[in-house]
Structures are given as C-alpha cells and as structure tokens.
Amino acid sequence: MFLEAFDLTGKVAIFVGGSGGLGKTISLGLAKAGANVIPVSRSKQRNEEVVKEIEASGVQSLLTTVDVTREEEVQRLVEEVMSKFGRIDILINAAGINYKKPVIELTVAEWDHVIAVNLKGTFLCCKLVGEKMLAQNYGKIVNIASLGSHLGITRSAAYCASKGAVLQLTKVLAAEWASHGINVNCISPGYFKTALNEKMLSEKETYDKIMNRTPMQRLGVPEDLVGATVFLCSDAAKFITGTTIEVDGGFLSMAL
Ligand SMILES: NC(=O)c1ccc[n+]([C@@H]2O[C@H](COP(=O)([O-])OP(=O)(O)OC[C@H]3O[C@@H](n4cnc5c(N)ncnc54)[C@H](OP(=O)(O)O)[C@@H]3O)[C@@H](O)[C@H]2O)c1
C-alpha cells in the first residue's frame, strides 16, 4: 500500500524534550505511527506520564531522564536505549529554553545556558546518537528549529543565535551523513502556546502583532506538528535531507 512508506512500526525513537508542551503530542503521534518512543528530559515525573500514555497505545517505551548539557548523561541515555532496543532509528531534538529580555539585560550566564541547552545539547545528541546510526547505516534526525532560526526576534538574542546555528548544524550533519543512510532535517514551528512562551503570548500587543503577520490568523496547536514529524522520520522522506519544514501558518512567507 502506498502509505506504507509513512509507517514507523518497530522503529526506535529517542525524543529529547518529548514530554514538553509540543513534545508530548508529537511523541504520541510517533507512537500512533508505530514507533517505540522514549521521551526524555530532566523531569522524571513528566517523562513518566508520557511513557505511560505511549505504552498504553501499544508500543514500547523506556523511563529515563537526561540533561542535554551534560555529555555523560547523553552517553548514558544512548547506552540505556541501546541495551533495551539494540538500535536507535529516530532522534528528535526539541529541548529548548529562552530568557525573554533585551540584549542589554541578558546576563552571560543566561546566554551560556541557552546556548548549552539549545545548541550544545542538539550537537551532543546528534553526535552520540549519530555514532550508533552510522554503525547501522540508517537514521532519521529531526531538530526543532524556530522562527528565530530565520528572523531576529527581539528580546531573544541567545535563543535566535542558538536556533540559527541549529539550522546550520543540521545542514552540515546532512551533508556529512547523507551517504550513510542518515537524513537530518529541521522543523521550524511558528507560534504555539506552551510554557516556553506563554507569558509573551499573553501580552496583547505582542499577540496582535503576531496575528497581523500570520496568514492563517491563529496560533499553532501541537497536533499541527505531528504530520511533518512523522513524514520526516519515515521512508517517505528518504530523499529529503538538510532542509527545514516551516509549520507556521504562513508566517515566514508573508512580508505584509
Ligand atoms: N512553543 C513555540 O511556539 C515554539 C516555537 C518554535 C520553536 N519551539 C521549540 O520547540 C521545542 C519545544 O518547546 P516547547 O514549546 O514544547 O516548550 P516546553 O514545553 O518548555 O518544552 C521544552 C522542553 O525542553 C526540555 N529541556 C529544557 N532544558 C533541558 C535540558 N537541560 N535537558 C533536557 N531537556 C531539557 C524540557 O524538559 P525539562 O524541563 O523537564 O528538562 C521540555 O521538555 C523547543 O526547542 C523550542 O525552542 C517552540
């Protein structure tokens, strides 16, 4: 059947940030597509809730945690998943933080923290999971970028710098690993209401500005990201690498 190419049955997916505001819904979407999904972040409790829902949907999971800024923790995560499943087919990198303030007020510690989670964390996960994917000659990596990868968002200097770099890192990995059966792509979400930006989106002036620039005239909901993620993780996208799918209601397409 034609849709078989989208089927993820039996695939093993590490989802970093997979119990977060966007991550939880996408984790469950990957599980519905047949993948065994391991949602990880620092919070064991949040991961556990999602692990239970994933297992209830009939696929396997694993309860563990990771702080992506720490190489030894990412290494431990990779070994835990390898010892239970013997392979890692899919990696989603969605751990992300921001300190929403003007450059002049952003401390060096805050800058370092954002770069450590959003950029170094993505690098570490790609590198350490990538080693296993290279050995099996198969892998799908999806890095969650942002509008801030493409545009300068005020009060988000470290965030935009990190997300712009994630886009570039994705292209380099795509080029280096294309001949080893590994696809590396990004998804750039537009504005979605989660813990990350709840405060900003509740400012009426900011919200109105965003709506005026969004052709579809609404915020995204996490379900909007499931189709693009399943697609990029599937063999339906096997000739696609080093690119980004913008899931933003048209935001990046409109000048006025
Ligand atoms: N919401 C939007 O409108 C939007 C738009 C564009 C891009 N994005 C991107 O989408 C991704 C998910 O964001 P979200 O909106 O779902 O926000 P969220 O609910 O705050 O999720 C962020 C995730 O990152 C994890 N995380 C933070 N620091 C971590 C660390 N050191 N190690 C491991 N995990 C860590 C969090 O889990 P713990 O705190 O438990 O560790 C959480 O699972 C982020 O990369 C974000 O930049 C979001």
TrEMBL record:
- Answer whether the UniProt record assigns the keyword Flavoprotein to this protein: no
Pfam families found in the cross-reference section: adh_short_C2 (PF13561)
One biological process GO term for this chain?
carbohydrate metabolic process
Keyword DNA damage on entry: no
Keywords carried by this UniProt record: Oxidoreductase
A Gene Ontology molecular function term for this protein is: oxidoreductase activity, acting on the CH-OH group of donors, NAD or NADP as acceptor
Query: Where do the Ketoreductase domain residues begin and end?
Result: 11-190
Name the InterPro entries for this protein: KR_dom (IPR057326), NAD(P)-bd_dom_sf (IPR036291), Sc_DH/Rdtase_CS (IPR020904), SDR_fam (IPR002347)
Q: Which NCBIfam families match?
A: PRK07231.1
Return the PANTHER family for the record.
3-OXOACYL-[ACYL-CARRIER-PROTEIN] REDUCTASE FABG, SHORT-CHAIN DEHYDROGENASES/REDUCTASES FAMILY MEMBER
What family is this protein classified in? Belongs to the short-chain dehydrogenases/reductases (SDR) family.
Q: What is this protein called?
A: Short-chain dehydrogenase/reductase SDR
